[in-house]
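Handoff note, outgoing to incoming analyst
You'll be picking up this chain. Sequence as last confirmed:
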Amino acid sequence: MEAINCGSGSLIFLSRRGPTLSHLFFANDFILFCEANKNQATQLNDILRIFYHFSGQKMNRGKSQIFLSPNVPIDLVDATCRDIGFVRVDDLGNYLGMPLFHKRVTTNTFDFVVSKVRNKLNEWEVKKLLWREELH
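Most recent structure output, in case you need it:
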């Protein structure tokens, strides 16, 4: 946060007119957002070094992932991955059951959530009907 506050860090816009973001923390996981360049890679390594110094918890870089925009030139991708020491992935997959998006969110993006909720409600309705039959 100090890097952000003093202007040497970067904030990522979540959408054209949306809020900016530099990081997310949840339980024992964290996600950092930055630009793909040498300066940001150095700052990321500094942040991780400071985190280890104060927490005593060293991060496993082999299990850590980096996602870079398809617009980043391949030579910069290779240099960034080498400098940071993370595994590059094309898709970050799911986190806490929800997909981490890399594309525009549309009205169909969360159809799977609506489907899961409908299925659960149907299961409850069936159980309720069976319970009523047992009472009579």
